[in-house]
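Example for tutorial group B:
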C-alpha cells in the first residue's frame, strides 16, 4: 500500500447547531480544531479547496476569512461528493509542488436559514422544472420506483437503511437523534415523494468541517496519528435525472472498482464504509455499484440488519445524513468520520480493529461519484 496523501487534521465545527456563525465562520472554527490535531499553524496552509451552495467563489471567501494567500486554489464542485474529490486534487497538487499543506473546508447554515437558504439548483433543467418536482427528492423517488419495478425492492427494505443509521446515531453523542427507530416508523411516516417517506430522507442541519492534508512523507513530522489516502477515483455521468441512461445505476460502479484497484485492496479488506446517505435509496444503489452485492439485490442484502452496529458491514458509523448531520453537502463529514474510526476515536461506535475505510460521496441525484480508500499507519506498515 503506497499512500498518495496524508490527512493530519479532520474536525467538525463545534458551534454548528447554535446558529451563531456564518458558513465561513463554521469553516474557520472547524479549521482551528483540525489544526489543534497537528503541530501546524494557520500560516503553514498554502492550499485551499472548497465547494459551497452559499459562496460563488468559496476558496476566495475562505482565504480572506482566514487570512491565507494560497499558492493553490481549487473550488471544483461536483455536488456533495466534491470534498472527497478534493482529496485526489490535493494529492496531485502537492505531488506537483503547487502547495505543501492544503485545507479542505465546508460550511453551511442550511437549517438556520430555512426558506432563505441559498439554493444550489442554480441551473434548472428545461425538461424537469416545468413539472414542479421537488429537487432532489423527486429524482431519488424516480430511482426508488424504478428499483422497485425492476427488482422487487420494498419500502421495508429501504427503511432498514434508516433504521441502521439511527442505531449508529444513538451511539454518537454528537447526534441529535435520541430515540430508536423501527421499520414500521419509517414506512408509517408521511410520504414526501412516492415511494419515499419523510424518514427515508436526510436531516436538514447546519454544519462545518475541515480536513488538513499534506504529503505522506511529511505527515509523521506534523501529526502523531496521520491517516493515509491510498486512492481516489472520481467520475460523473449526467447533470440532470433526464440525462441518466439508467435510473438504477450509480457512478460508484465506475469509481469503486478503480479506487480499490489503485489502492491494491479488495472489498473484503475494508473495515469501515462511509457512504453518502441523502436518501435510503441512494445507499442501496451505491452498495450495488460498489460491488458489495449483485445488481438489484441490495434490498435483500440489507434486510437482515447487516448495516446495523454489530452487523457484517459497518456503514455510516456516525449516524450519517439520515440521523446525525446533513447540511446540504455531506462528503466532508464522511471523511471526518472515517478518520475518527481509523484513529480509534469512535467511542461507543468504534469498529474494533478498524484499519481501512472506504469513503464514497455522490453529487446531485447519483450524477457524480467519488470513492476514496483510507488506511491508518499500522495498516500500511
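The residue assignment follows.
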Amino acid at each position: 500500500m503506497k499512500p498518495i496523501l496524508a490527512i493530519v487534521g479532520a474536525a467538525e465545527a463545534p458551534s454548528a447547531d447554535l446558529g451563531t456563525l456564518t458558513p465561513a465562520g463554521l469553516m474557520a472554527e472547524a479549521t482551528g480544531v483540525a489544526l489543534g490535531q497537528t503541530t501546524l499553524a494557520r500560516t503553514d496552509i498554502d492550499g485551499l479547496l472548497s465547494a459551497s451552495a452559499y459562496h460563488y467563489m468559496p476558496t476566495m471567501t475562505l482565504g480572506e476569512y482566514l487570512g491565507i494567500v494560497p499558492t493553490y486554489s481549487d473550488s471544483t464542485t461536483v455536488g456533495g461528493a466534491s470534498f472527497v474529490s478534493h482529496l485526489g486534487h490535493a494529492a496531485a497538487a502537492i505531488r506537483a509542488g503547487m502547495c505543501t499543506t492544503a485545507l479542505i473546508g465546508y460550511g453551511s447554515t442550511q437549517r438556520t436559514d430555512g426558506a432563505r437558504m441559498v439554493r444550489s439548483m442554480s441551473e434548472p433543467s428545461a425538461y424537469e422544472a416545468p413539472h414542479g418536482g421537488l429537487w432532489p427528492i423527486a429524482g431519488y423517488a424516480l430511482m426508488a420506483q424504478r428499483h422497485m419495478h425492476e427488482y422487487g425492492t420494498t419500502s421495508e427494505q429501504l427503511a432498514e437503511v434508516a433504521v441502521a443509521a439511527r442505531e449508529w446515531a444513538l451511539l454518537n453523542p454528537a447526534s441529535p437523534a435520541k430515540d430508536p427507530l423501527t421499520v414500521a416508523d419509517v414506512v408509517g411516516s408521511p410520504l414526501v415523494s412516492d415511494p419515499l417517506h419523510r424518514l427515508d430522507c436526510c436531516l436538514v442541519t447546519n454544519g462545518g468541517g475541515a480536513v488538513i492534508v499534506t504529503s505522506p512523507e511529511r505527515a509523521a513530522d506534523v501529526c502523531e496519528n496521520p491517516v493515509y489516502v491510498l486512492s481516489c477515483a472520481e467520475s460523473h455521468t449526467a447533470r440532470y435525472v433526464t440525462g441518466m441512461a439508467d435510473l438504477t445505476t450509480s457512478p460508484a460502479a465506475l469509481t469503486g472498482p478503480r479506487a480499490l484497484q489503485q489502492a491494491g485492496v479488495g472489498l473484503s479488506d475494508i473495515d469501515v464504509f462511509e457512504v453518502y446517505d441523502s436518501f435510503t435509496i441512494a445507499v442501496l444503489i451505491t452498495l450495488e455499484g460498489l460491488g458489495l452485492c449483485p445488481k438489484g439485490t441490495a434490498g435483500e442484502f440489507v434486510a437482515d440488519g447487516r448495516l446495523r452496529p454489530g452487523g457484517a458491514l459497518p456503514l455510516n458509523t456516525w449516524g450519517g445524513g439520515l440521523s446525525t448531520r446533513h447540511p446540504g453537502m455531506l462528503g466532508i463529514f464522511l471523511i471526518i468520520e472515517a478518520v475518527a474510526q481509523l484513529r480509534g476515536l469512535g467511542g461507543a461506535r468504534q469498529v474494533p480493529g478498524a484499519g481501512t475505510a472506504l469513503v464514497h460521496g455522490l453529487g446531485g441525484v447519483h450524477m457524480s461519484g467519488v470513492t476514496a480508500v483510507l488506511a491508518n499507519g499500522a495498516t500500511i506498515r
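The radius of gyration is 19 Å. Compare this with the pattern of hydrophobic and polar residues in the output above.
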